[in-house]
Design a protein that fits this description.
Number of helices: 10
Distance between the termini: 27 Å
Radius of gyration: 26 Å
Order of helices and strands: EEHHHHEHEEEEHHHHH
Main location: membrane
Subcellular location: Membrane
Shape: globular
Number of domains: 3
Strand content: under 5%
Membrane topology: Multi-pass membrane protein
Pfam family, one: SNF
Keywords: Disulfide bond, Glycoprotein, Membrane, Metal-binding, Sodium, Symport, Transmembrane, Transmembrane helix, Transport
Length: 319
Amino acid sequence: MNYEESDFGIEYPFEETGGSGDENRIRGNWSLKLDYLFSIFGYTFALGNLWRFPYHFGINGGIAYLIPYTILFFVGALPILFMEVSLGQFVSLGPASVWKLAPLFKGIGISMLFVSTLIAIYYNLITAWALYYTINSLKFSLPWTTCGNEWNSENCSVWNKVSINACRHLNGSFLSNGTCVDFNNSDPSNNSSILVLDSNNKTMTGIEYFHNQVLMISSGILDFETINWQLAICLLVAWLFVFLCSFKGIKTSGKAVYVTVLFPYIILIVLLIRFFTLPGSLNGFLFFMKPNIEIIRDLKVWANAAIQCFIHFQHALEG
């Protein structure tokens, strides 16, 4: 195999002959230009960015938050993204090898590998949670919507704090089945007992399900007995999926992105349609769209926008 060398001593693993096949014989080339574009899109607009952005959008002045975010996007985030992508496409080397052009900064490439490894670990754990919930959502009765399960505590409540206070405001009483009843206007003859609830000490069923059943939070780091084997299998499946998508490099990952990128956005569109069918959805939408221009003068908002820009585009993460 022949290599071309530049003045910087970088080996370019390109084939010198003009025959058929990939130009890059070591790493391979994208089968289609669309594979690369989908990969970049999925990398820069990942699902994790979509669930973080609305939160910061809401707490930083609504739609006015787009002003500092857009400015910092074009001034800082986008140029750095183009620089990283251009450098990677030009030399076709990994993050550790690419810094042969400037050996002083080789530590940056090693740090990128280290950080990417850590991120892959916890991202795959989130994938395992999603798979676990998806499987259990196929049951006739969703396990995280009721109390009385073996993982529930005495403080379990199917009502949240707002609902409890609303029921008390109506002079209602809680039943063990989670119903708010006004005995002055209804028949009290039923088999359900009245519950005395303290809204400050109650835990939602979904929280208890996640902590006690999904995570099975143990007594300490040395407690190895409380392992959720179902979740462990889901984690194994998640890592197996990563292997199948990447064992042949960009040849397989380039095809997998059509599913991993498009499917989440299809689900988000479905959820958006469902959102607008719920009562009060318009009020929530208007809350996000109501601008608070005063935030433009707040340096903390600008700092938050800068941080989110760099987090969203995942700079220096071996993309």
